[in-house]
Design a protein that fits this description.
Distance between the termini: 12 Å
Number of strands: 13
Largest sheet: 7 strands, mixed
Radius of gyration: 21 Å
Structural class: alpha/beta
Shape: globular
Length: 389
């Protein structure tokens, strides 16, 4: 049933809105002023305060601020030393995941995903682990913690392989009340502007392991054992976190529960409006999985060209849909055709579920401040486009 005529009632629904109130802006400005007056622009009191707040939020003992989510992953893998080995991870992830393993000196093995959750397929994981596997990275795609995480952990534990969480999408995501970043030996978060919590740039490592915590701090600053001394004991890098970025992080921590509540409310509204639609299937998860809803993921039948659908929505209704998670799986990336030695999957390896979800998913806008009438407009516009396709 067509609800709108093409070109009528056109609104502007962007991919993302950053929601800063006057109170938020005042908090940030005062925080930056305090930093400037302190004489310390990096790695000082604000960073420590943000690390403490984030560790408490994730219910872990330690948190280490870093320059990016990618550097967080690389630091973890340098700490546990994956060099000269392999790291297993899903192909359905952003390229930061395999690149961080490669830069830490490892080669990559990709797994297929479970199409019902978009998360790593435990059965494929069992097949992919080798004698030289030094870590498994579980990626909480879309802010979803895998309902099969216990099975994945058992596989890793049985082979004494550390489990790392790529939680770039999963700030505040929970499974049975347990937060992302607290399941493996360490978790890695990103604070890029599109993420659930953002500090413009930056990342965070979470862990309950004291040795990981201490060594991560060394790698974060060019391998220095003591911040105040130019004595280097590891091959580290400049992965420091700035005081100004930490001020942005502290502002986000003040309203993190509100941010998550809004995202989950938006997802609930989508759930209601997308029930029993012919054209669009939503991702359905067990009730004990409580995502952060970094993305709200739906699936189109293969008869529709996703690019065309997105173009029609933007052109006729002013709706810009966000990117997928992900449209191009890592195993298909041109860089790995150029540098074939970095990926050690067999040449005839197949990823049918990954390729299917990458081709058919359609992500809908979800960000704090998105209004219920805008959600209705988005859903009605999609129905109209698909009806008239």
């Amino acid at each position: 049933m067509a609800i709108f005529k093409m070109g009528k009632l056109k609104k502007k629904i962007p991919i993302l809105k950053l929601d800063y109130s006057k109170e938020d802006i005042n908090f940030i400005l005062k925080g930056i002023e305090k930093v400037l007056k302190s004489g310390f622009l990096t790695m000082s009191d604000r960073v420590l305060e943000f690390e403490k707040a984030f560790s408490e939020f994730c219910n872990v003992k330690y948190a280490i601020g870093t320059s990016s989510g990618t550097s967080s992953l690389e630091i973890i893998m340098r700490v546990i030393d994956v060099s000269q080995g392999t790291v297993v991870m899903p192909s359905n992830t952003y390229m930061a995941t395999p690149l961080s393993a490669i830069k830490a000196g490892a080669k990559v093995i990709f797994t297929d995903c479970n199409p019902n959750t978009l998360q790593m397929d435990p059965n494929d994981l069992k097949k992919k682990i080798r004698q030289d596997t030094k870590a498994v990275i579980l990626v909480h795609i879309g802010g979803i913690i895998s309902p099969e995480i216990d099975q994945i952990k058992e596989i890793c534990d049985s082979k004494n392989i550390p489990l790392i969480e790529d939680a770039a999408h999963a700030h505040g995501s929970e499974l049975l009340g347990k937060k992302a970043g607290s399941f493996g030996i360490a978790g890695s978060f990103s604070f890029y502007p599109t993420k659930v919590l953002n500090t413009a740039e930056g990342g965070m490592i979470t862990t309950n392991n004291y040795e990981v915590y201490q060594r991560a701090k060394i790698f974060r600053e060019h391998g220095k054992q003591n911040h105040a001394e130019n004595v280097h004991v590891e091959i580290g890098d400049n992965w420091r976190y700035s005081e100004i970025h930490a001020v942005l992080g502290l502002q986000q921590m003040k309203k993190v529960n509100n941010i998550l509540s809004q995202r989950r409310k938006i997802a609930s509204l989508y759930d209601k409006k997308l029930t029993n639609l012919d054209y669009l299937t939503r991702l359905k998860l067990p009730s004990y999985v409580n995502p952060s809803y970094y993305k709200y993921i739906t699936f189109l039948p293969k008869i529709f060209d996703r690019s065309k659908v997105k173009s029609l929505l933007k052109q006729n209704y002013g709706i810009e849909l966000p990117g997928e998670v992900y449209s191009h799986p890592c195993h298909s990336q041109p860089v790995f055709h150029k540098y074939k030695n970095y990926v050690v999957n067999p040449k005839d390896d197949k990823f049918p579920s990954t390729e299917n979800v990458c081709k058919t998913q359609l992500c809908l806008p979800v960000y704090p401040g998105l209004k219920s009438e805008e959600i209705k407009y988005i859903v009605d516009s999609i129905i109209t486009v698909l009806d008239n396709y």
